[in-house]
Amino acid sequence: MLKIDRRIIENFDWIIFISVVILCIIGILTIFSATRPPLDEGERPPFYIKQMLWLFIAIIALLIFISFDYNRLKDFWIFLYIFGLILLIAVLFSGKTAMGAKRWINLGFFSFQPSEIFKIIFIISLSAYLSNKKTPLNVFDTLKTFFIFALIPFILIFKQPDLGTALLIIATTFIMLIYKGLPIRLLIFIVFLSFISLFFLWEILWEGLKEYQKNRLIAFLDPTIDPKGIGYNITQSVITVGSGGLFGKGFLAGTQGPLKFLPEKHTDFIFPIFAEEWGFFGCLILLSLYFSIFYRTFKTAVVAKDNFGKYLALGFTSIFILYFFINIGMTIGIMPVVGIPLPFISYGGTALLANFIGIALVINVRMRRFELFYP
């Protein structure tokens, strides 16, 4: 039985929790609408039911991850990180292939996506490592940290292939290194070196991409080049968002999803379905929920009692913000399609569970920010 200190309950961040649950309910309703059969004839896929079950499991996980002092995780980060890398290696050899990617491990009764689990382990491990470093980062420390926590996972996740998550690992590592105190001159040098390397290695990198990844980049640069082919996703997504107007068509009144004009309508492209039904003003409410979560999680990083807590909160805030902006950006055509789901709304059990664990750890840091919780 979980034993939770009364003082911790009093400092529980209800704003974050309620905002997240509201987003999940919006997500379930949108999944329900997006996957309904045309003219409501035929059998409805059970995606929304599965998402409801995963929400129940995710809330239980949240209660578990707020019930203990988050500093206990600091002692086991090496074992957690090795376990995370083993999961990423395992999926390459025995993973289930779907839609041209090998990203899932099938356990028989359910499948899970190791990269979603790894992003939790990654934030915990990098936070523990950086908080243990008492001196400012030098060139060697920076390169070693980047190699261990960014480059190795990037290669393993890129091989699945999951370019979106792989790039997010790189970006989050840089954000946390900068917060740690990465020298500006070194940062400028790394950015300059990256651009120079990209110029010389572009052809090699381009050849290393899958055909559909190349098509996504081409479609991003010019969706009109093949609107019925490689540019179809982006074109239909923009049309769906725009068709919502100011007030939307109303719940269950959207057409782009049920009539199958929009691909991946309940996963990566769920935002256009919401925008079509609820319009511009509905999207403003949705964005306000996200921004309230981002503000609270970032504020937690500011008020955290110790460095480990600061890095945890900053890491998860960075992941959530990056996922949010990239997903919204790719659905309205201002960013390339990289297969990034919308946090708490897109269909996906492993992603929902991982996001709730991340939120739980941020709330955990906020609840234990006072000295009185430490004997």
Question: What's the arrangement of strands in the largest beta sheet?
Answer: 1-2-3
Oligomer status:
single chain
Low-confidence stretches at least 5 residues in length (pLDDT < 50)?
none
The average pLDDT is 85
Share of β-strand residues: under 5%
Please summarize the sheet with the most strands.
3 strands, antiparallel
The tally of strands reads 3
Distance between the termini: 23 Å
Counted by DSSP, the helix tally is: 13
SSE order in H/E notation?
Answer: HHHHEEEHHHHHHHHH
Shape: globular
What is the domain total for the residues? Answer: 1
Round the Cα radius of gyration to an integer and report it: 21 Å
Q: Structural class given helices, strands, pairing?
A: mainly alpha
Helix share of residues? Answer: 55-70%
Detailed description of the structure:
There is one protein chain. By secondary structure, the protein is mainly alpha-helical. It has one domain. The protein has 13 helices and three strands, in the order ααααβββααααααααα. The protein has helices at 6-10, 14-34, 47-65, 77-94, 114-132, 139-158, 163-180, 184-208, 211-221, 232-242, 270-303, 307-331, 349-367; strands spanning 96-98, 101-106, 111-112. The protein has a three-stranded antiparallel β-sheet. Strand 2 and strand 3 (111-112) form a beta hairpin. Helix 2 packs antiparallel against helix 3 and helix 10 (232-242) packs across helix 11 (270-303). The longest helix is centred in the last third of the chain and has 34 residues, at 270-303. The protein is globular, with a radius of gyration of 21 Å. The two termini are 23 Å apart.
